[in-house]
Amino acid sequence: LHAAYDPDNIFAKILRGEIPSVKVWEDDDVLVFMDVFPQSEGHVLIISKTSTARTMLEMEPEALAKVTAATQRTAKAIEKALKPEGFSVFQYNGDAGGQTVFHLHFHIVPRWSDRPMKG
Ligand code: 5GP
């Protein structure tokens, strides 16, 4: 849980443009992009562009506030665009917490009662 930030993690490479991503929203503070292995239609990830926190424990409150505000804005946009019946927001910390990419991120997974979540 308390290892050093790896500047070559996948999301750092996405932020540097070294590997491609399908961007949904970008400003000075945050990037919202499509998850490459979506658990449902419209599964997106929200990350900070300014913070190198691996987990929620490390993130500066100001940067975390920007990420959560962007998560809410994105959820509203998804609600309008895809009209899901519900949606799940989740965020994993540490190997044991289910985290696989160690640059803090939130997931939004749109949900429909007749479509079970994949993966
Ligand atoms: P977590 O760390 O929260 O368990 O999940 C990391 C998420 O990043 C997974 O949902 C996975 O599908 C996604 N992911 C892993 N590699 C890439 C990638 O190269 N591009 C994108 N867009 N998503 C990725």
Automatic annotation (TrEMBL):
Q: Which residues form the HIT domain?
A: 10-118
Q: Motif Histidine triad motif residues?
A: 103-107
Identification of the protein by name = HIT family protein
Organism per entry: Brevundimonas kwangchunensis
